[in-house]
Prior knowledge:
ten-stranded antiparallel sheet
Amino acid sequence: MNKSETPVVSRFAPSPTGRMHLGNLFTALMSWLVARKNGGKWILRIEDLDPQRSRLEYAQQIEESEIIANFGSVNKHIVMAKETERKFLVKDESWREHCGEGTRFVQTYLNTNPDSTVRLRIAGSRAFITVKSRNHGIERCEWEYEIPEQDAREMIEECDTSPVIDKTRYRDGRWEIDVFHGALAGLVVAEIELDSPDESIALPAYIGREISDDARYYNSSLANSGEVPE
């Protein structure tokens, strides 16, 4: 392939350490214009090169920002190399006072081996495939990629997967509250992404017993058991 035939690939690679600002937007726009002018491909790549300050909520804000959405078709490669979270049972309904409309999640697992969990998730009209390593305390590695929703539905239909988990996710600031349906109805779990394993957090009134280290409450375990742990 000669130089004139080489496709142009331009990328915007922010670290999710804060909300989008004008400098980010200018860089994203310039890289997109280069790709557009040359009929090439524009890639959004998000990496937590600064694991102490990276947060999933910032990565989601970058993805969902208006300027990114207006770029149209985007080839996304999203990497969040560390996931640090704590999980709790929810003991009452007071969280609903702080949350708006939730998002329905349908998810299953292509592999439930705790050393290399592979999750397939449809969240509203978007779909993701996620690979996770074994937990080390409340921390583990995670790699997540957005895929076409139709591809995800075909994988669920055609591949040998775990039973499907059906739940609705609500947000209360940094907290995510999952209300499970079907065979897992009655289970409500709250989780929060941390900046570091030793970060101190204030617990809302609705937070109950911590289950961060209880493998029975891993979503992959719930998918296999099909029942709420006693």
